[in-house]
Amino acid sequence: MVKLRFMGGTHEVGRNAILVESEQARLLLDYGVKIGDEPEFPAHVRATDIDCIVVAHAHLDHSGGVPLFYLSERKPFFATTVTIELMELLIKDFIKLSGYFLPFEYIELENMMRQRKDLSYGTEVKLKDINFRLVNAGHIPGSAMVELSANGRRILYTGDLNTLDTRLVHGARVPKRRFDAVIIESTYATTDHPDRRELEEAFINEIKDVIYNDGRVLVPAFAVGRSQEMLSVIHAHKLRTNVVIDGMARKVNEILLDHPDCLRTPRTFMKIISGTREVRGWRDRREALKRAGVIVAPSGMLQGGTAVFYMERLALDERNGVFLVSFQVPGTGGAKLLETGRFTIGEREEVVKARVRHFDFSSHAGKTQLEAFIRGLRGKPDIYVIHGEPESCDALTQWIRDELGLNAVAPNDGDEFNV
Ligand SMILES: [Zn+2]
Ligand SMILES: [Zn+2]
Fold it and tell me: How far is the CA of 387 from the centre of ligand 2 (A)?
């Protein structure tokens, strides 16, 4: 028997954490953070109580709380090399921005980095009576699903999952092994993404429209994954215009280029990066605003980051465009912009005159892909649905029960199950 305990990230997107307990070992799958006005962590897990942490990918909702385990303990953490290096970058930035609210500091991050255990896809690890390995999750470079087995039971944790190829990475495949339990994300369980080719064309056409009228297009995008994907889309359509990228981009790109295996087309990526101007400071930022072109900047939800700086300067001119390309968590600046057409500039809520669009460039499986993935699983696993808004978690759970007749549940934080 293996025990699963859900510590966070249930019925919400943010702060994933699942404790896996076998007869001899305790392994933590992810320990993320939910970023809001104040960062929220999963339920407390004592560092002395676990043997190791396995991190699915670098996004902070999966990795942001890991330094908490290095206040006094020195447990190993496992992830792909790209994930580990991106984690270092993202957590450093997180400490810089939110340090006041955090129970850890740079020193804990350093301690964490000393306990890194780099894993390539497919390499088996044995930790007491638990065996595990990472396989490609198709979500961002370095992202992984975790296949683990203990006490004769097999468990799959998808982390964030995308089964379709994107410009940046290969899509995930359905694992061939049989599982007794599968923990799956459900970010887009109720929505199908538009056809990728049509989406790209619409995006490019709208950009052309804006820049031919001497406007600037702001593409708010997260620094890791989505920014590089958007550059790749622009490159593939041979758009001739000024393209600048802001926010940690240089370091992220360096990490990706150091590990070309994590990319679908490393050569093309290298070309894209050499053709893109990188913003290195405030002077570059003001410069970027002077010319027609595309500015890719974080954060993807217009919640902090330099995208807000650009937004404040572009929003009130109808020649400009603001093209959102990510999931907009309710309550964020981006979500409010889509709902109301307004954005807070300084102290005032202003009606945005720039053209606002939302393009669904997701790196998560949509409804159809999630369903196909679950259908493709062998055996009759129990399914645990997490990492989605409450409606998404519940809808996918219901679909699994009705359509496939499998046991499915959308757990709550603190719930425990025996596999
Ligand atoms: Zn993610
Ligand atoms: Zn996530």
Answer: 7
